[in-house]
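VOC family protein structure dump, as promised
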Amino acid sequence: MAIHSINHVQLTFPAGAEGQIRNFYSDLLGLPELHYPTSKALRFAAGPQRIELVPTERGPATSTAAHLALEVNNLPELRSRLLQAELALVENRALPGYLRFYVKDPAGNQLEFLEPDTEQEYAA
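structure tokens r here:
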């Protein structure tokens, strides 16, 4: 037996905020929504993996460390799109070899977006 990939990650959002969640994940992030007719969860494709968001009466569990990290192509374009949507980005956490920032989705789930920094030189 060998684990070879993550199939999906599940996050929560307050019931009634479906429109905000769809706008964030589909329109702002550009993830295609996957439709399952018998489910109240919202599902989005991130490559071969899925991000599932489940409505709850309580919002997401808050933690300063818990987050979903997504590796992207063209991080500056995504950064610009999120700033135009007036979202607060956290950009003060350097990670050697990567460009990155954090943002919270409309439900308060923390997301990290990162891209390898191809211009950074490494000391041997």
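The longest strand covers residues 49-56.
lmk if u need the other ones
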